[in-house]
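Researcher: I'd like a candidate sequence for this fold, 189 residues long. If you have to choose between options at a position, lean toward the conservative one.
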């Protein structure tokens, strides 16, 4: 078997993010249209998670710090537990990670809409773990970050637990921002 499998972490086109209307931690309605024109990184968390979510959110906080002052990039955390993750819970969680409300959104909404968005839109998994008495309220979900371009196209998937994948993510964001700059520089005024 001499074929090398191409990793998911490559700047590609994996489909469009479907339209959505969710509620941000500020209480403001947020839609896909609000994110058009920005490169953004999505992740999927829940505030009571004790497993991968704190690590994912810490990695997002580091990206926020690394991109301080960089225009055209946003971070978007979607809850996979909207029943418990109220806007108040998301606000407290965001504050704990010093999330800049103008650059890092925390979105919630109807459970069915979020499940469809995660599974059909982003093509990732999220499911409540079978309860064996120990896994009370545990939601199994993907630890991947998803890179979305200014047109709402999914361009890459990156394992948030892998330092090399996060470095590729940073390079790919820079490439998307450069592509945009070079295409706008080439346009006639």
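Model: Candidate sequence:
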């Amino acid at each position: 078997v001499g074929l090398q499998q191409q990793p998911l972490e490559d700047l590609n086109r994996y489909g469009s993010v479907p339209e959505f209307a969710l509620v941000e931690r500020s209480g403001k309605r947020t839609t896909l249209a609000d994110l058009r024109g920005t490169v953004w990184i999505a992740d999927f968390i829940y505030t009571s998670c004790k497993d991968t979510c704190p690590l994912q959110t810490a990695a997002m906080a580091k990206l926020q710090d690394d991109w301080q002052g960089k225009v055209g990039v946003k971070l978007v955390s979607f809850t996979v537990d909207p029943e418990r993750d109220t806007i108040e819970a998301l606000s407290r969680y965001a504050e704990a990670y010093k999330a800049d409300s103008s650059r890092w959104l925390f979105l919630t909404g109807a459970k069915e809409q979020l499940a469809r968005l995660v599974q059909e839109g982003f093509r990732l998994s999220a499911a409540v773990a079978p309860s064996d008495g120990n896994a009370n309220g545990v939601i199994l979900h993907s630890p991947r970050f998803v890179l979305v371009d200014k047109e709402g196209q999914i361009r890459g998937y990156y394992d948030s637990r892998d330092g090399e994948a996060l470095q590729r993510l940073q390079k790919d964001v820079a490439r998307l921002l450069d592509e945009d700059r070079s295409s706008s520089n080439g346009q006639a005024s």
